[in-house]
Design brief:
This protein is an all-beta fold. About 0% of the residues lie in helices and about 55% in strands.
Length: about 120
């Protein structure tokens, strides 16, 4: 049974940092593209960052200087380090993995990040 479990969300003051983690089970983790998305209240889900199985990194331009995505294939974990957080970063952050061959995607339940100004 495939499972993605996020953790690390919470309430932080503007300017602070958080690290989100997602533990994945039920997959051959190392061959999947991993990523993070977020959804703010009243807005559509948007991509934040992704990391392929050969470690090619993509982070959306406005976040590049503040967010870092990483993966640990020995622990089936993908992380998102978020620095200098802003109120606009508030939302539910969701872990995503995608089969690079079939395009099939799987999602976690999400973890809430709230940045107070």
């Amino acid at each position: 049974q495939a499972q993605l479990v996020e953790s690390g969300g919470g309430v932080v003051q503007a300017g602070g940092s958080l690290t989100l983690s997602c533990v994945v089970s039920g997959f051959s983790f190392s061959r999947y593209t991993v990523g993070w998305f977020r959804q703010a209240p009243g807005k559509t889900r948007e991509a934040v960052a992704r990391l392929t199985n050969n470690r090619a990194v993509y982070v959306v331009d406005p976040l590049k200087d503040r967010f870092t995505i990483s993966r640990d294939n020995t622990r089936n974990t993908v992380s998102l380090q978020m620095n200098r957080l802003k109120a606009d970063d508030t939302g539910v952050y969701l872990c995503n993995i995608r089969d690079p061959t079939s395009g099939t995607e799987y999602w976690g339940q999400g973890t809430q990040v709230t940045v107070s100004s």
